[in-house]
Amino acid sequence: MKNSIIVILIILSCIALFLIITCSGSSAIKNTSITGIYTGKTKDKKTGCALMINKDSTIQLACVSKGDTSEYYGGIKKVNDSLLHISCQEEIFYGLMKGFDDDTLFIHVDSSLVTSLNGFNVIYTNGKSVKISNDKIVDNALKLHVNRVLYNELRGRDYLTISTIFYSRVKNLKKKISLKVTFGSAVSFNSGFKQDFNVVIKNDTLVTVGEPPASGHFRLVKKKE
Questions:
Q1: Would you list the domain boundaries of the chain?
Q2: Which of 71, 73, 128, 185 has the most C-beta neighbours closer than 10 Å?
Q3: What is the pLDDT of residue 28?
Q4: How many angstroms separate the Cα of 4 from the Cα of each of 12, 13, 15, 70, 161?
Q5: CB-side exposure of 139: number of CA atoms within 13 Å?
Q6: Model pLDDT for residues 54-90, shown as the tens digit of each residue
Q7: C-alpha distances in angstroms, 77 versus 36, 45, 91, 145, 202?
Q8: Global pTM?
Q9: How far apart are CA 148 and CA 104, in angstroms?
Q10: DSSP code of 43?
Q11: 3-state secondary structure at position 151
């Protein structure tokens, strides 16, 4: 009798465990028709966005606005029959901010990105370039004394270009990043910002709802294969 009770309890435990696993997995994306690449703009038309939804429910999001670029990775899950939730973290942000000194180009590099960026190449408009290695980064910053003859407020000399190679651990690939740096600006490379937001997908159109993401609400359309 005691053995029978033990067997029954084990069976009930197994059933309970199965139900827990089944219920916990119910939020996964099973509708593969929503997978693919969605592109579009924010509601204010100031930011372009591209979102990739993969079959394993992971996502990659890129937002570009006035030269500033943010790239995120994360996941998407089902909230109910019509609502989906995205949780993601910024792998890299790169863009411009107000400079501190016209004679010095300031480049902020987040400590988490030091090993992901392969040095920097600063190119003036006349083609002259200066290479800076990562070992020059001190307290998350690079400081380059600029040539004011080649880089100043005069038209045609009022910008320079910074390029670097970024290794994405999420995508497991290397890519070149280039930034046009206007005179009086500084450069920032950051990562780690996290955000959560909800979306609705209908007729191959993805729209953010509720609390907006950092970019602001956006509407994206699925690219046809």
A1: 31-222
A2: 71
A3: 58
A4: 12, 14, 17, 60, 77
A5: 2
A6: 999 999 999 999 889 999 999 999 999 889 999 999 9
A7: 15, 27, 20, 48, 16
A8: 0.82
A9: 9
A10: T
A11: coil
